[in-house]
Every structure is written in C-alpha cells, then in structure tokens.
Amino acid sequence: MPLLRIVHYPDPVLFKVGRPVADESFANGLRKTVDEMFETMYKAGGVGLAAPQVGISERFFVMDVPDEEGQSNKIAFINPEIITVEGEQVGDEGCLSFPGLYQTVRRDMRVIVRAKDVTGAEFEADLDGLAARCVLHETDHCDGIVFLDRMTVLKRELAKRKIKRLQKTGKWG
Ligand code: NI
How far is CA 126 from the centre of its chain? Predict the structure, then answer.
C-alpha cells in the first residue's frame, strides 16, 4: 500500500478549515484513503493523523491510542464534532507535521465526541487521558488549528525557535 506524504509546518493546508466529508465519499474511496492514513500513521510512529496532514483539506482523522493492556484501538472519525469536554490535563504533545518537536500543551481531560465511521454510521465516543488529548488535537487539525496555537505564548516562542533550528540543520523537511 502506498504511503501518503505527510506535510510539515508551515504548509498552508494545515491552516485551512477542512470541508465536511460529503455523503457520496463514503461509497467513493474514503475507506481506501482511511486505510492508507492508518498505514502512514503507523509507519511514522504516530497515534493520530488528520486528513489535512496528508494534504486533504477535509474533516476526518484516524487514531490508534492503545488501551492499558497495549491492545490496538483503531478508530476513524469522519466529520467529528466535540459534544462536551471536562477537566484538564497538562502534558507533552507531538505532531507528525512537526517532526522532532514536543511541547507542553494544556487540554481537556475528557471528551465526548460524535462522528461517523467509514461506513457512514454515526457513533459517540467518551474518552479521557491520551485518547481525549488525541481527539482534541486531531479535531483541531480539521479546523485548521495546529498545536502551536494551543501553547502558551512562551512555549510557542520556544517551539518556533526550535523549528527554525531544525529547519536550518535540514532535519525538518
Ligand atoms: Ni498533529
């Protein structure tokens, strides 16, 4: 299966609000794209990957945050909508569009999200911890928001400096 190319910051597609996935897409290639995104995400060692990160400005993402026993937990979220959030968590976050950059980001601890699966069936998921962090991060991608935008001003400045360094040494791409 061909791997998709992951775009890196500051590619403009990362800042565009994604179009909702159209009903006809479910019968026309969405599943194939989703499978390729999972494959691309696993090869890159990520736990989430949103369509804009592979150059598709649409609202969907794939995620696999293993459970406590390390069991794989593959979910595709098509047209995700955050229904409610609760609590708070502060922790390090990374992003496949920001290779080598990890920075502290404050997120909600728990999230209830509604989305469609690849067959077009609607579902709701009630997630917390890393899975909640991932859903919020990837839903942001669908809205043209990157994790830099979620950092404090100080952390964002530090992150931008680090990106410049990585770009200069050719480790960014
Ligand atoms: Ni990301």
Answer: 17
